[in-house]
Amino acid sequence: MWVRVTTLEGEAGADQGRVSEMAEMVRSKVLPVAETMDGFRGMLTMADAQSGRSVSLTFWESEDAMRASEEAANRLRKDVSEESGDSIADVQRYEVLIDERR
Question: Does the structure show a pLDDT above 80 at 50?
């Protein structure tokens, strides 16, 4: 399994409403598109209102599937950052070595 990790930076000290808006944007705009992509295996999004940072992980069945989704992921990332006013701080890719969630 592979994971793409996207970090966005927004306004520090955002209120809970701002965090909820980001969650709804990801849930309504990103997830439906990602779910149609071959090899997509799930998503995890986290936010820290104090720092204004959010981190999203998308999970892929293979490196090839993750790489094949890059163009669409770039568009989604750009759209979300523009709509939210956040900036794209970082995008990294990793092979998952251990997945021990319960």
Answer: yes
